[in-house]
Each structure stands twice: as C-alpha cells, then as structure tokens.
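Pasting as-is:
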Amino acid sequence: MKYLATVAGLLLMNLCVMNAQEVKAPKFGKGLLKITGKDSTWTMNFAARVQFLSSTTWNYADEEFQDPESNFLIRRARLKFDGFIMTPKLKYKLEFGLSNRDMGGTSVYTNNVPRFIMDAVIKWNFYENFELWVGQTKLPGNIERVISSANLQLVDRSIVNSLFNIDRDMGLQLHHHTNIGNSVLREIVSVSQGEGRNVTVGNLGGHQFTGRLEFLPFGLFTDKGDYFGADLKREQSPKLLLGATYDMNMNAVRTRSNMGSYMETDYGWHETDINTLFLDMMFKYRGFSFMGEYANRDADDPFARNSDGSLTGDIVQVGKGFNLQSGYLFKSNWEVAGRFSQVNLDKSITGKGIEDQYTLGVSKYIVGHKFKVQSDVTYINLANNNDRLMFRIQMDVHF
C-alpha cells in the first residue's frame, strides 16, 4: 500500500507539472496576484512585503560613545489581501504580520496566541461621500501612525508616535468628505472596544471614542500623497493637510490608552478615563516635504491601586510631545531628511522627564516606497544624562 501511495503521489505531481501554466503577475509593487471572479462579483489582490533592519546603539559615558550593541532582524513581514465583494462600493482589507515584532504581545487577553492579524476590515460606501468601516484597523489618530510602515520617510516612526499613538482597535468608523470649492474637508468618527488589536476576552473597561477632522485648503494631494512620506510625486503646486484628532478612552484599563500594560489590581482592573489630543500637518511642494505633530495625553486617575490603596506600579503615561520632520527629494530619487522629536512625560506622575531625539536620514527610492534602502542616525538625549547614539539601515521590498 505504501508503494502504491508513493507511485500515485509521483503521478499526481507529474500531471500538475504537465498542466502547469505561467501566471502573469501585476507590475512590481502592484501585488503578487490579482484575481477576478468569473462573474466579476469579487476581486482579490494579494501582496507581500518585508523589511530587513540592522541597527547599532552606543551608550555615552566618560565623554565618549562606547559599548556598541548591534541587532539584525526582520522588522516587518506582512501579507495583504484586498478587493471588493459584489460591488466596488463594498471593499475589504486583510493584513497579517508574520515577523516576531508583528506578532509580539501574546497574553491571556489575546488567548495566549500570537497577534498576527493586523487588519480585518470591511469598507462600505453606502451613500454618496459616506463610507462605513467595520472591523479591526487603525484608528484615525496622528498622521504619522496612519501612514503605513511601508511608506515612511525615515527608517521608523518617532518616539512621539511610540508613546502616544492609539494604533489599531476593533469597532466602527464613519468616513465622510466634503468639497468646498477647491478645498476638501474630511471627517472621521470612530467607536471601538478600547483595548487594542486581537483582544479576545471581551471589553474589560468602557469604550473608545475618536473624532478626526482634516482640512486640505489647496485640494487633494497627488495619489494620496498626504499619507506617504517624502514628496515622491513632486507636487507641482503647494499641497497642505491640517489635521486634528481627539480621542476619549472611557474607563480604560491599559497604561497608554488602548496600548501598554494592563493595570491589574487585586480586585480586577484599574479603570480611568484617558484623553488624547493630536494636532498635525503635512506639506509638500516640488520635492520638499514637511510634517509636524503635537500630542497631549491626560488621565483622570493615572495611578493603579489595590483595594487597600497601595500602588500596583502601573501608571498611565501622561504628558505631551511634538515631532518635526522635513526632507528634500532630489531628481535622482535620493532624499535627505531630518527629524526632531521631544516627549515630556509628567515627571510628578511617571517619574520620567524630557527625552529629545535628533535624526538625520538618507534614502534611495529605487521603485518608490516599494523598493528602497534607508539609513538614519539618531542622537538620543535623555533627562538622566544616559545619552545614546543609534545608527540604522533598512531595506524594504514590497511586491
């Protein structure tokens, strides 16, 4: 029987090879495979991307940088599927993260399994300029976070984003835009669970409510250029986006709104209202780009306590920060960019102070953001004088 099974397997393999056909894939950067249903009632575009990162960090001591620590890793590895169902007005997006950094954060709140689902969302354009989103995806927070990690101007996002962003969550979003002459006003409102992505234990606290307004006084950017880094389209007329987001996480149970550690106590979870404000802008013109962001977070009761009043050690990361970033893209598709970021956590609450980061980066866009090599060097100035220097180089390949 084993012999017959082996022969059958070999025959099947030969049959598949004999009948194999070459599959014509889309142009590089447009996905690996695009499928359209026979009756045109659905489509699916399949894409993949990966980031290879090398970084080295030096500590400052005895008036010199020393003790370098190097790290090599696959920073991100993603699979993405998107298309429409029944009608182009009903779209979907699925994105899965496969690297360790993508899937990290396993806990009892995610059923002790990797968090590999990044996005799973349906988008329904149900009436004129209104679109309803249902599922797990990025909340309408600061512009730096909503820009895809595939389309960043520097190797990675700023420390302001790391501490204050509101990332992904499960819920509903309503998107709308209005044309006002040559200008555009976009409005987004969101109601979500408030505890981040891939949570399986149900809602522990309250819910998260987010609202965002975007005003584009000079009209739309070319090919949605307000939501990717660098002026790759070399806008022939000035383009500007002004944005504001206000987020209220009611009875939040995590230290960074819907992110960070859970504030566990001897009676359950510490709950407090956490409010986050973002103000941001994006400007592009003839290869020059500028992005600015401001973030502010507060909480009604930032200290988690047990039933006897003793502190658990979990503290809401309240404070403020700003990020200024600019670059110029040469006609050779080399770009030089710089960034200054500062976070100022409330020292009386968090015990932490001001951190400044100065970053200078150089990028070569071989096929736009789809195939690029980026490097940057960052001087990290900490309040406790434990300064550091960090160098990074990264290659992105997006099929």
